[in-house]
Amino acid sequence: MFDLLVEYISTQRIRLDRDRIKKKAVYHDPCNYGRKSEALFGHGYFHEPRWILNQCLEHWTDMQPNRARQYCCGGGGGLMLTPYEEQRKYYSRRKIEQIKNSRAELVVVPCHSCHGHIRAMLDAQGPASIEVKYLWEVVAEALVMD
Amino acid sequence: MNSTEVLSHTDLSGPGGGGNPAQICLGCGTCASACPMTGIEGFDPRRIVRLGQLGRFEELGESSLAWLCTMCGRCQEGCPMDVRITDMIREARDLGGEKTVPQAIGKGIEMFMETGNNLGLPDEDFGFIVEDVAEELTEEPGFEDFVLPVDKEDARLLFTLHNKLVNTQNEDLKHWWKILHAAGESWTLPGSRWEGVNWGFFSGQDQVLKAGVDTIVGNMERLRSRGLMYPE
Amino acid sequence: MHNFSLIETRGDAGKAVSMLLARLLEQNMVQAVIVPAAVPPSVLPMTRLLNNPADLDQTSPLAPVAGVSAATQAAKISRGPQEIKIAAVLRPCEIRALVELHKLNQAQLDNLLVIGLECPGRLENQDYIDLQDQNQDLDQRFYRDEDLQSRIAITCRSCIDFLPENAHLNICVLGLDLDQQAGIAWDEGPGADAARALELKPGQEPGERGRAVDSLRSQRESAREEVMSRSRETISSSSGLQSMIAHCLGCFNCQRACPVCFCRECVCSREAFEQNLEMLHTRAGRTGGIRLPAGMTMFHLTRLAHMAHACVGCGQCSSVCPIHIPVADIFRTVAAATQKELDYKAGRSPEEPIPHLNFSTEGDQ
Amino acid sequence: MKEAARALVMGGGVSGLKAAMDLARAGCSVFLAEKQAVPAGLLLGLDRQFPSNHCGLCRVLPPDPSGRTWQACMRRGFGHPGIEFFPGFEVQDIQGSPGNMSATLIRQTLMVDSDKCNACMQCVEVCPVHMPDLFSTGQIPVKAISRAAPHRPPHHLAISLEACTLCGRCRDACREGAIDLDAAREEKVLDNLDFAVLASGVEYCLPEVYNLYQSAAHADVITTLDFEALLSSAGTDIMRPSDGRPVRRAAWVQCAGSRSLKLEADHCSGICCMISLKQASLAREKDIQCSIFYMDMRTSGRDWQKYLDRAREKGVELIRCRPHSIEQVPEEQILRIPHAPSPGNQQDRDFDLVVLSVGRDPAWKPPEYAGREGVFTSPGSRRVLDIARSIIAASATAATALGEDRQESLPDQEAKDQDQVHSRVLVVGAGPAGLSAALTLAAGNIPVVLVEQKDHLGGHGLSNISPEQRKEVQDLAARAMEHKLVQVYPSAAVISCTGPAGGFKSRIRDSSGDEKEILHGAAVLATGGRAAPVARQEDRTADIFEYSRRIFAAGNSGEAPESVIFILCHNTRQEPANYCSRVCCSLALKSCLQTLSLRPEAEVTVFYRDIMVQGDDEELYTRARSEGVRFIPYSPDAPPSLEAKDGKIRVKGSDPYLSEESEYEAEQLVLAPGVVPAAGSEMARIFNVHSSAEGFLCEADAKYRPVESGRAGIFICGLARNPVPFKEAVLEGRAAAMSALGLLKQGLDSRLQTFVRVKPALCSLCGLCLEACPFKARYAHEETGAMAVDPLACRGCGACVAVCPNKASAWSEQLEENVHELN
User: Fold this and answer.
1) N or C: which end of chain A has fewer CB atoms below 10 A?
2) Domain ranges in chain B?
3) Beta-carbon neighbour count of residue C140 at 10 Å?
């Protein structure tokens, strides 16, 4: 998925406008594409999404910590589907803190699961005003159609 | 149970290879520092590893410990002894038996095994939903000529979907379609068995995991797609 | 001290005390006595060694003057193994100096019967000589004449350590009418032995004494605080210190008069302080000329460093300074601060070790 | 035997200096190569060292009465008769065989001509190469050309050739012509070397290289070495590197770069726990809140546990948890460490500064020539050692090199007694330490009287349990029995020892009960130690020494119990035996592994407080765990309780990871009660030296003179001094012998010269010098009472000179010149 987007952008099969999204964004590394991919396949998708974001946005930042040491959104491992809601909230406090500390108004994630969970946790623990978007959603929004 | 039995019982040679079995654990606490779940209901990766050392996997699976884990792998990433903690969780979830699998996951797996997707959505309904969204898309400027390629043969890419996009968040289907359209990609959506999410990964049930992979491979063979686009 | 006895003075307390000393010789409690005595033509009592009981009537044990500190001589004659036991009549500051010298192997307290004198202060030597011209019975009169007492040496005016410590026998004058009675106090040990020989009967100590001591102390304490705060200000800057010693003539009187300066040859008068012309020449060019002898600041600082833990506050240095530099005030001020820091007091006890000696290879564990 | 062996010592750190000086004192011509411009190595940056919290490097210097070596601080420079010092040179290669070796030295540091340099610093100004700085963690910009060390005067500049690009700008900028860049390519070849001693130490782990705790990204995540520099340059506050704000909260993270299989670093660097404790203790004095994150607090020396207690009293907080990561809280300038101090309990703690406690670089290897014949590698160049052990190891290595160099030449004659100095040495105790000492002395042509209480040689055999080690001791004993310079008195005891160094007079009682007098110049006390007694519940209980002897006795055909429980630190490491015995943990681990190798299905459980293994012994611990030994930590407040029932031992203890109290059953219980000195207090009395409350003999300086007692001429080593494993006891024995040998050689050469003289005309006999002397070198003459100096005991520290009010105690004239020459 990252590779495909990188391919489209770098070969100019799609063209992007960096000025459309004005909000300050922050990027979330999903466990599966980053840390676990690195451990299992020897390559973590850390660089690619950041490169893609640079093509789409003017202002974005990283969470602290990030990449291999990033915190899980709290919905992984099927936990989102379990009834352990309070526990998930406890777990996600770290993610929410990270998001708040970044002072971003928009969280960009490249994972359905993380997207859903971060949205739910922001709604539950606030601030609900922060938007959550898929990485490809950001790409789609920046698309320049001739 | 003595150590040799633990070793033989816990064959932890996961897909990544390498790593060490539980008993080499140093008890250092890196995992517990890493894990955001540490501290709730006595949750602590060290506890999980200790139970693993002692071969008490079933007990682990039956307790909430195993199901509170998000499998994020942060513990394992930091472990100086390279203990495969998340692999152990999968093992425990499997050994805990079906009764311990949370209802939503259990239900989803059941549906998947029956219908090919975790929602149990009939193919006709699926077709109706995606076509509806595709039609909406053509109303947006620049995408007037968008045509949704379903079951197109010989496409470069086969697209599987996360069931939640089909279920409640149909709007989000459009983002990728827009990109693919703009890029002029040759792609296709399977008309049936489109599920891209594999919950066998969560439950630790290898047979479910395998069935998920088989579905996708089946689709790729059927439609002779060269590449695969996968939501997870 | 635990035991107290009153003796009749019949108008001459000095004589009464002299008679006691004579009795000590007669009883062979001691074989010699050192005590101030003025031998004509001199009128200034000086430390004198006597061994004939009959000679004691020429002495002035209560004379409110100390030509030089008696500690130096008391220390010297007490050294080494000897058969002769000596009674020494000493002021509190002289005893303190003696105790310091004892710790430095310069005195041997065991050879002495120390007789301490309660000290309302001493007159400067010249004042004593001058006043004696006008007052025949100066030694006796001093103790009842507040006007005379107000003329004591400048250091004594702010001295709070006027009661003798570490003596075997004390001569008590405070709160008593010396024309009638003087007091003798003692503890167990050599003091008690002497008291028995003198056939002294322990009696009630007059309450008036306590009040007199307290009132003198509080008066001295406020004087002392005033002196010290003035001195602290002077020495708080190097320019203050410099200006204070600016007039120093380089006579070294202060060092010679100091009872705890015990070195055979002062380091200040030796090669370390010598400066050759080349060195002086260089410095003179840098500082716009150089005062000779050079190194007087260094001399005073060295003294100050040595005195910081050893000064007993006798004031002899100030007394002998020809141009009246208040050296003793500075020493006492620095010493008070240093000794407080080290939890040490010069002359307090022969058992108290001299600070700065506990070198250890163990570090600061 | 050759008159003077030619020896090369590589490395001018404390190990190299010690080895070089020992060899020089033993009569060798020594060449000392050090790649820095100044000696002292790592100590250049360590101003304060545990447990004294100050430096004492100068105490390493032998009392050379000529005064020529007298110097205030070796960090400023170094000179010693018999040692040719090559500052700035590193050995590139060694060729040839012993006796005819040649070494190629290449320049690593180029010195600026200090006679010409006027410290204008133009060269530093123009130098384009910026360097990391060991001394100020970047607070002062450092270039390829810079001051050689902060302790040196400003006109002593040096160029690091590792960094220098030879661009020539400094040379062009120098108006005095003090820089000669052509000398950068200078090489030196040393020929006809008899042997070489490698003492260049190890490389330290750089966290950036291993991406430890993302230290490269956080300016305020530094290493213990950096912190040392911060501490040295700190005033009332320690300033953080990022923004210069005072540090109020600091954390230390132990085992950065070690004890990790992921980093291929299955080792413990051994001293980092103590370094962190020291740094935290010192930081407490600046009112900084200090927390140390650790796994096992390895305070494994005689005095180290007490040092830990003192640190705790000072308010240093110890948190048993290895953190996963250090998080930066943006905008707040805070470093946050999430951690789990106890199972099921997670907390965040915020810090201004985090110090990574680093040790040996996992990838470090000794140079290729380290293994060549004739090259003797000091153990301090294989692993990280603390200062005392570095010094012992260096002395011992020098002794080994010297001994092997002389092996072929038999002693031609017994050295004669000269000038009342007896060249004989009395060695008390014939365990590994005593035997090693005796043989080292004998190899140096010094006759030895070896007194042993038992009827056989070999000692108590506490930690030499493996068959190889037992054989090693037997060999030592046999060699001692055979050596013609070693006179052995078995079943004998020393009754008294009087006299000064060089002229001791001791009475010994031999096996027949006869007493005889022995004259000797020095003595080595090596009376060893024994197991502390344990209360045995029944015969299924053994102490660790007994059990390990038993389990190793029959080799691979022995029998092992089906289940065994070890309880480590049994009644030890707490008052009244508040010290770590150092031998028990590794002995226990070896015994666990041997048990499992004899009986793979055996169930082995170990209750422990901190596993105290160091260096590569960490592998033992890792192996024991991976082979299934179960380790359960306990706190001394709640030790496991014991009970014997139905032929089995029952231990009740709680597994903190499971938070459950459990009962463990085993066939065999093994307790580790630690070791106690066998005859410490008695030796202390007879030889008039100090001993600790526990009865260990005390050294003159725990860091820098570890095998010397406070009394000149009496040396101490092995278990009598401190708890040590077998191998270290051997090293200590050799080191003690080396020091005795040096003292005698030096004493024989120049008995009557001293550092300090007394000017009788000025002396007031006040005796302040007697009390001031820390080395018991000042005394009052028995008859005249005059103040005097014992030349063999005097170290030239100057305490008496300082305390003498009128300078009657004064430096010897030669020395005085040197004092004025300083700087």
Assistant:
1) C
2) 3-99, 103-229
3) 20
